[in-house]
Amino acid sequence: MAQQRTLDSGFWYDTGPDGQRRRAVAVLQAMRVYRTAELSMRRRTRDALAIGENDMTLLRHLLQFQQEGRHASAGELARHLNVSSASMTAMIDRLERSGHVRRERHATDRRSINVVATERTHHEMRDALGDMHSRMLDAVIEMTPDETQAVLEMLARLRTVMDEVHPVSPERIDS
């Protein structure tokens, strides 16, 4: 019932009598409910792995890079995650101490150091997220090509909107 009230609520949207607008608001509200559930799942996963949000993001990227056969230096990871090199070094040091990553010399450039997720990390992430990923795939696998295309296009449009959001400066809030 609480979820239905959330979906019926327009929050800041003026739903009015327009059916098309009401459907659009219902989609945005359903996405809000999904994001809340996803954030909660991510928190539970981080707690189970005893790591922070940035650490989890770093490990996800490292695992993706390794799956693609790519190597990642600390500098590349810092740029990818938009953090300072000092923050990245601290993050890698912390994850190295916990046994989640290791530093390795680059195979051809001996001056370069790659950051690599350990086998332990692969197993922990698979154990923590594998079942959920399978269930998510099951939830969407029967979508028709048209439904799939509609969802992909909607998410691309929303991503563009999010990418264009700039923080509000304190001067604009005070005026």
Silhouette: globular
- State the helicity in percent bands: 55-70%
Number of domains: 2
Unreliable stretches, pLDDT < 50, 5 or more residues? 1-7
Question: Can you describe this structure in just a few lines?
Answer:
The protein has helices spanning 2-8, 19-49, 53-67, 74-81, 85-97, 119-140, 145-163, 170-174; strands at residues 101-105, 113-117. The protein is mainly alpha-helical and 175 residues long. The chain folds into two domains: 1-49; 52-152, Arc Repressor Mutant, subunit A (Orthogonal Bundle), CATH 1.10.10.10.
Walk me through what this model shows:
The protein is built from eight helices and two strands; from the N terminus they run αααααββααα. Helix 1 (2-8) crosses helix 2 (19-49) and helix 4 (74-81) packs across helix 5. With 175 residues, the chain is mostly helical. A two-stranded antiparallel ribbon has the order 1-2. The chain folds into two domains: 1-49; 52-152, Arc Repressor Mutant, subunit A. The two termini are 40 Å apart.
